Amino acid sequence: MPAPAARYAEPGNAPDALSVLNSVFGLPAFRGAQEEIVRHVTEGGNCLVLMPTGGGKSLCYQLPSLLREGCGIVVSPLIALMRDQVAGLLEAGVNAAVLNSTLSFDEASEVERRLLAGDLDLLYVAPERLLTPRCLSLLGQASIALFAIDEAHCVSQWGHDFRPEYIGLSAIAERFPDVPRIALTATADEMTRKEIVTRLGLSGAPSFISSFDRPNIRYEIVEKQNAPAQLKAFISERHAGDAGIVYCLSRAKVEDTAEALSKAGIPALPYHAGLDASVRARNQDRFINEDGVVIVATIAFGMGIDKPDVRFVAHLDLPKSIEAYYQETGRAGRDGKPSSAWMAYGLTDIVQQRRMIDESTGSDTFKRVSIGKLDALVALAETAGCRRSRLLGYFGEEATSSSCGNCDNCLSPPQLRDGKVAAQKLLSCAYRTGQRFGAMHLIDVLVGRLTERVTQFGHDKLSVFGVGRELNEKHWRAVIRQLVAMGHLRADSEAFNALKLTESARGVLKGETEIMLREAAPGTRIRVSRTKSRRGDLEPRAEAKPADAPLQAALRAWRSEIARQRNVPAYVVLHDSTLDGIAAARPMTLNALRDIPGIGDKKLEHYGDELLAVVRAADA
Length: 620
Ligand code: ADP
Ligand code: ZN
Fold this sequence. Notes:
- This protein is α/β, with parallel strands linked by helices.
- It contains 28 helices and 17 strands.
- It has a 7-stranded parallel sheet, sandwiched between helices.
- Helix 15 (347-359) packs antiparallel against helix 16 and helix 19 (420-432) packs across helix 20.
- The chain is globular and about 90 Å long.
- Bound molecules: adenosine-5'-diphosphate and zinc ion (ZN).
- Zinc ion binds next to helix 17 and helix 18.
- InterPro entries: DEAD/DEAH_box_helicase_dom, DNA_helicase_ATP-dep_RecQ, DNA_helicase_ATP-dep_RecQ_bac, Helicase_ATP-bd, Helicase_C-like, HRDC-like_sf, HRDC_dom, HRDC_dom_sf.
């Protein structure tokens, strides 16, 4: 093992990873595979790290960079992300810098000088910059601890986020064969993984693959009734004062939703490609830097946003696939604290997505694959079982238990009833009306409503007219959605979304296929009172002591002020979890404060006295 960088060594001792984790980052223990990865890389090994968002990838290269001789070079595609990471490291007393196009010539020269002087622990470099002859020759002269390639899936041409400049990164292995390389990504699929290994020269190196479960995220999918009202209720009852992201498909809906939330007193800002770049940047900055801002956005928003304290992600429209749903909801709760993934969806969403696929210019294969993906997502939305085990199952991961205890279906299991007769009525209604009508009309016929259309087509004369009066419209919609999810019925976008029977519908009509249907959900099935403690009831694990709300508020106010003064995002100063830890423990001494996760040596030195003063003032 090479000589460690002296800065982090106890006098006379080689520093061990755990003591640096504690002194610099203020953390008491490694999480999951971190320890093994840190050891492997510190000893000079290459590897691939697959960990979900929020899993703690950064420490996997930051610690070895501190423990090894020389500077760790981090390749990262996103400038905003580099900036925030470096700000956080500087706060923790690590000598970190960036080298990218935002620097002036003089600033860049200064960074280069510090690198050569051995004055840097970590240097974040944009890929296109790294590959310039100037930079490669600079690195050739410097002492390099390791190369970390973050967002490594960007090398994959098949992936969803291909970046041509990443292809050139294969040069690293060729030019610096003896420097360890660690590639990191949160994208799990096999094909992408293989491509990373080939392109970055990692064959033979171990892969560290973590579970993709995000246990702190509570999944909840509700039936869409009055979406804006449902969203407002969700936010005000469960996430008042929290930061969150609301996803909508269209720009107009983004604007309307942001306005409706603002009117309801929820600080919400729009974000979509049609807004002026400066407005977009300002809204994004406010979301990142201020506490409790809700951003309403099209899916373009979120990539490269590292904000750890996003407490909820809400979908007002159906995403394209489970991959997209997982990625978008994954932006909640990076800090590991309880967070919600909430989605309101209805039959029209399925029809709309289906139409988008059919009308797209993609090949037939593309359309077939897209439809398959949409079907899988609809099945997730309609399942009566655990959402989490469905999600993990989709990614090829076996859930540890069939009930996670932290999704709507586990917390309040839907009633299942025999739906064979209802399904038969619905399917034969679609059949007898010629498979030419949408949900609304079929329901009119079933409940025996004499609308103009019903009489016009003589559907009141059919045997199915009025045979479904035992269920109301809402129930029938739920039946239709589930039959679509089960694949017995599909909406044909080329025929005005007429509902058509599929091959498998025959078995249902003949009574050969059993059909269990979930009772229509009343909409907001999880009601959480937030009057006692702000998050107490959302907490999946019991906390030792409930955090004290006034002290929590005082700490947040203090943090906002510091963040403003230092011009960094609030979470760079201290994470929510650290503030909550302080509010719960009420430390009275610097020693006691140092025990709170997130308070390392430098933070104690900078903020210790002020934090104790805030705690004391709250006690007075
Ligand atoms: P990723 O890059 O995998 O999305 P990060 O490296 O940003 O995740 O880490 C996510 C969050 O988890 C951060 O808030 C970080 O401080 C926290 N974290 C990481 N490792 C640990 C640990 N061992 N103990 C406590 N918190 C941790
Ligand atoms: Zn569950």
